[in-house]
Amino acid sequence: MLVLRPVEPTDLPQLHQLARDSLVGVTSLPDDSERLREKIAGSCTSFDSEAQANGPQNYFFVLEDLDSRRLLGCSEIVATAGFNEPFYSLRNRHFTSASRELNIEHGVPALSLCHDLNDHTLLRGFHIDAALVRTPFSGLLSRARLLFIAAHAQRFAEAVITEIVGYSDENGHSPFWDALGKHFFDLPYAEAERLCGLQSRAFLAELMPQYPIYVPMLPQAAQDCIGRIHPDGQEAFDILAREGFETNSYIDLFDAGPTLYARTANIRSIARSETATVQQQPHIDARGRYLLSNDALHGYRAIVTELDWQPGQPLSLTPAMCAALNVTDGSPIRLVAL
């Protein structure tokens, strides 16, 4: 059985392997033991905190096979984007110029460096083993974060965002980076993303042009990248799109990947999640797939399984399901249909 749980210090070796296998552009999963160790420590502190509002906390989760004890994926929630340093993006909006004398008004799309998305809750770090892509466990890895937000709403903002990895080719070249960022840093795209993971995107963002960049002045290959998703990032996009996330006028600073946005209260798994009381049974009928979680903090657990449940009734779970979720008879459980 696969279960999502908070990361632990002993996960470092396996987490480092996940980082090595992750997609270029997933800067929140750096291929560096010391940086990962710091991330794990920060997450453990966040889960142990008594926060009553969204602050600097980061909540890092891993997907574990309980039989083999192997980690098969990870994902993260940052309670407040831009809490310790600005969270930079490019705002893609039309710049309108007009001449009354000639009776001409013309709009041109322009990219502007901004940190408008500060103070939103940020989903990031999604990575899953290739064998599990397009399976229900991808949904578990991504959407169980939303049930955690539902259970601990006071710790998060009123809106949630996520950046989807933008287009780069099989050699790790990004036409958008080559047309824009590379002029300000003598670095290939993959190296710039690696530095962001090891240090901070702020130090690179602050060297980017501070004035609007007119999109028609970029090469066509770079223009085509704006809002374009890397093929390996499509599943992460699709899962959250089904949750009600939508694209907006913001794109990633380095590869022009889209930013998704949703009001927290309107996210499907948050708005439609329900609670029930556990009733342990040796066998259950399976008539529909559900995402289940307990409402704990450091002991948070989530699984995806087939159930038969009616609202207002106890939720029948097998002993194996109860063990995976760290619940017993009478425990509250949160669930949402998939």
TrEMBL record:
One of its GO terms (molecular function) is arginine N-succinyltransferase activity. Transmembrane segments: none annotated. The keyword Transferase applies. It holds the Pfam family AstA. The keyword Transcription regulation does not apply. It comes from the Bacteria. Keywords: Acyltransferase, Arginine metabolism, Transferase. GO terms for biological process: L-arginine catabolic process. SUPFAM superfamilies: Acyl-CoA N-acyltransferases (Nat) (SSF55729). InterPro entries: Acyl_CoA_acyltransferase, Arg_succinylTrfase_AstA/AruG. This is Arginine N-succinyltransferase.
